[in-house]
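Changelog note: in this version the structure field was regenerated for every chain. One regenerated record is shown below for reference.
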Amino acid sequence: MKLYYSAGACSLAPHIVASEAGLSLELDKVNLTTKTTASGRDFLSVNPKGDVPALMLDNGELLTEASVVVQFLADQAPGSGLIPRCGSLERFQVQEWLAFVASDLHKGFGPLWMPVSEECRRMALKLLHGHFAFLNLTLESRAYLMGGTFTVADAYAFTILNWCRFHKIDLTAYPRMVAYMERVGSRPKVRKAMEDEGLLAGGCGG
């Protein structure tokens, strides 16, 4: 399988999941400005959406959207504990978290990546801080989003929350969320994925 990614973008989430699951991925870095890959391909010919992640399967099929790709990868390693079995209540609870990350956190950062007015930026930050407060409360009694077990939802949430560093968002009001980010970020397989993308000494985004 080949993962088309951009360093620190939401494609880091499936990269983390593959690392945690012990799955081998070929990596091809995408320049999201020029829509070209490190291997010299026109990325739009791979994924007409023009976004990462894009996972090329061994049979030539393509999967996109971070919340989908992380589930597919975790299902390739059912013994990893990264995702509950299909049809279980716990599976739907993980999907609930994935939907929250995708629709509230991920999209919530959207205006911060664009040349918007200061008022628009303030509104975006206000909404994000509301989500941070919710996460801080949720993490009062649990190590990870689903409790004591690291899942694909944590890989995705950590990836998006990591953008706070790039945007220099003050998180002092959310100590449990900060501790959560440190907990996830200290996992050896998470660090390996970040190291592969050159992120341990720098920023990220997208």
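Spot check on this record: The first helix runs from residue 12 to 21. The CA atoms of residues 64 and 102 lie 13 Å apart.
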